[in-house]
Specification:
Number of domains: 1
Largest sheet: none
Oligomer: single chain
Low-confidence stretches: none
Number of helices: 13
Distance between the termini: 21 Å
Shape: globular
Order of helices and strands: HHHHHHHHHHHHH
Number of strands: 0
Strand content: under 5%
Length: about 280
């Protein structure tokens, strides 16, 4: 039974706590969705980038053929595209899951997460492009405007999927709902990012130590072994980054629910209506 209410007002610390509570309560259904939809893309992109990285190292140690480097750069580019698309899929799965939980669904399966797949997938791609472009333009003007814009528009993906708003309405609502709550939104994003980075370092430090051991053990005298080791470590590094990306998406969804409740009181109104119907 889900006893974690999403649409309610929370302070800063409660949002951080609720992020991990959501993961604990919905670990099974959310985990299945991420495992089924996003993990194959993450592994595929890591394999493409890792093997390209290995081949580029080997090519530089050998002749450094320009044609071969161009082909490997293309493989690296394709791998990065798949890697970025995996972030879109992770965002889509997490936010769709939150939308289903908010609507009262308890037994969430794969078919439910597939609902509106094309709309959500291509819509999020468009939103990320618009947000990234607006942020870049602002940053080219001055660093602070770009930073400000990125936070103001950061809730648009959550609004687009959770509320099923149109593309432009999601951007506009994100801009307006963060009014007077810019620092609150930025603070949650910043703290959750610090937590995720700390977790990633815990995972990655053994890999860095392994890389040092590979070099120190004399494997560097064997170029093939060296490039293989570093390609695996690089691929694992990419996988860890992608796998942990779902945590800040949950927090952004909760930030949206918090701000929407503060400004509209829809969650409280729904509770009053339910009491009145008893």
């Amino acid at each position: 039974m889900n006893n974690l209410v999403l649409r309610q007002s929370r302070d800063f610390g409660d949002i951080i706590s609720a992020t991990f509570s959501y993961l604990r309560v919905h670990f099974k259904s959310l985990g299945k969705g991420l495992l089924f939809f996003s993990l194959p893309m993450v592994i595929f992109s890591a394999a493409l980038i890792g093997t390209a990285f290995r081949s580029m190292l080997a090519a530089q140690m050998a002749s450094g053929d320009p044609n071969q480097m161009v082909a490997l750069s293309s493989q690296m580019f394709i791998g990065m595209i798949v890697f970025m698309l995996s972030f879109v899929v992770i965002s889509m799965v997490v936010l769709k899951h939150m939308q289903l939980v908010d609507s009262g669904e308890e037994d969430i399966d794969m078919s439910m997460l597939m609902e509106d797949f094309a709309r959500n997938f291509f819509g999020l791609i468009g939103l990320f492009i618009v947000i990234g472009t607006a942020t870049l333009i602002g940053a080219l003007a001055l660093i602070i405007p770009g930073f400000y814009i990125s936070v103001k528009l950061s809730l648009a993906p959550a609004i687009y999927i959770i509320e099923k708003e149109d593309f432009g309405e999601a951007l506009g609502k994100s801009w307006s709902i963060t009014s007077n709550y810019w620092w609150h939104t930025f603070g949650v994003n910043f703290v959750v990012s610090l937590i995720v980075n700390a977790i990633s370092y815990v995972v990655m430090i053994p890999l860095y130590l392994l890389a040092i051991f590979v070099v120190a053990s004399g494997a560097s005298s064997d170029p093939q072994s060296l490039t293989m080791a570093f390609s695996i470590i690089y691929g694992l590094f990419i996988t860890v980054i992608a796998v942990l990306y779902f945590v800040p998406i949950i927090s952004q969804g909760l930030v949206y629910f918090n701000l929407d409740e503060r400004k509209s009181g829809r969650g409280l109104a729904a509770k009053i209506d339910s009491l009145g119907s008893l």
